[in-house]
């Protein structure tokens, strides 16, 4: 495995309810954290409405420039669930009923009123797809090459991610250390920039906060190299302390 | 005002910390809700890293096809705050120090250690911009034509939205009614589709849940026309009750 290669993924969050503000998305954070554990970096997210043409454009643009593509939402049994059709259109393949998905749904609905036409919609996949297990609600997720079609309900999304864990090739995970400090970030902006420059392979992000009447900031250092990360965190801590600033070895 | 015209906005959430999963975004929901009150629909969101070229591409693509563009994040005093430079590049204008922003920061930092070079970065704007007030932390937001550059920290973003309230031309706000029902959405998928078709100008979204060992769904009806909305909600409720389903006049 070439651990210096950076593997990237994009995520398309599909749903009018996210854009209207009715529902707070939780999948960006959940998938961002999970991908990092797989050694894959979440490089871009789009939130799009339940409109086929917009989904098709996003699928084509993002899959062209990333190693993997994930979608969440729009795979249920109702008329507003158009994700599978849109992705099939983007791929230029027909939609077919997957026999294993049909069998899973038949078993699941055997004691729940039977497999209706609406429920059978959840067995439809872009031709050539395989299934992603979902122990929660019967209906599986869908994998088509580098594209992963997941549920939108966060705890069902989590089940599908669990089923995918360890199955995607990635690189070294991006590691991070956080140095918290009781200082206004604007007072140490130059120090941060110099420290980052002195430590190639490390990026420092600055996240200010205001709490209990005091200002502070968490400085998040990221690198794929643990030794470089430690060296950078050590130097940053020493430099802040030399200025008489109170520093914590973790986020404040 | 032409209330039949649909006004749209796009949002670009800028920041490595959102993509890595370290920070949960709250601005998509906050801005989606706020825009709707202004009669503007949030049509698309992108979450992008702190990379100039990616921000430039997103600004150009999204501002071309929406009435308004908003960005959050990346306007602080540190080296990873590159939003203003990226937007100026996208617009093809230079970055200049705005005299009013400079005066605001001078006053704010008068008792807080003075206006350093790093802090002066927060007075930089794309040439031609005006300021958006921020009562919280001194540093203002920035408006350049149809583009609004806001802070990333949610409560500061909220202050800037408050300052903008009522200043943007929009259309009729999208109204919604929610009908909650103790039923598996897959059992009423056809009914939902027929009800939507029978009520032009209304869209019905179906949001299933599993709670206390029971399945249910909230059906959200959206329209810019209050009368149509009420008629659709009434018909949907009657049709569900005719099937013996327990229905609530709001979200369950």
TrEMBL record, chains A, B:
Highest taxon in the source lineage: Bacteria
CDD domains: cinA (cd00885)
InterPro entries (alphabetical): CinA, FLAD1_M, MoaB/Mog-like_dom_sf, MoaB/Mog_dom
Coiled coil: none
Stretches assigned to the MoaB/Mog domain: 10-172
Protein name according to UniProt: Molybdenum cofactor synthesis domain-containing protein
Transmembrane segments: none
